[in-house]
Structure prediction request, 214 residues.
Amino acid sequence: MSETLARDLERMGIRDPRVLRAMAEIPRRLFVPEEFKERAEGDHPLPIGFGQTISQPFMVAWMSEALELRGAERVLEVGTGSGYQAAVLSRLCARVFTVELVPELAERARVTLAQLGIQNVEVRQGDGAAGWPEEAPFDGVMVTAAALRIPPVLLDQLTPGGRMVIPIGAAWDVQHVHLVRKDLRGAVEDLERFAVRFVPLRGAEDGVEPERLP
Ligand code: SAH
Prediction:
């Protein structure tokens, strides 16, 4: 439990009480490797192996809040990583579908989520840039790795009235988190928010074959 973390996040501008409660209740230390557990409460990213990182708590909270979840939604996450973001989302919506490219990370996330008794998150190993067609459409889509552009497939899998948050930009360049809204007629609005730093979304589109990774 981390009430201190929730208070810090509130000071940093997070307002949604449901998001603050979820951040206070999900123990981040369970999602980080043994050697970083003492630093798990700090507002910074941490390594989780395979060259990947667990995002900083502020980013997890901001992206969660940006989806404006009320409780009944189905949400797709691309980039499960440690499973921490998925655990936070599990408290904010009805069902979470999360896709991770690295098999070991997907498996570890499954175990951690099960330890916490979280039952409304499904973890799939695969290329999340293809979304999850069998479960689409989604009321919210969250991408936690930086893409060069908004993947059209993910936009297709967003329900009218739905929201997507996604960092856009090359790994070596400045990236910005975008809030994308699809209105009820299907028109898309793309709002650039602030500068961020994420690991890259990997896939065939970037000239890297997902099967050959890590
Ligand atoms: N949300 C995570 C942090 C994500 S780090 C958490 O809460 O811990 C980004 C993750 O995206 C990494 O684990 C990386 O392996 C994964 N990733 C990168 N490209 C991907 C792709 N095409 N499909 C699915 N996952 C991908």
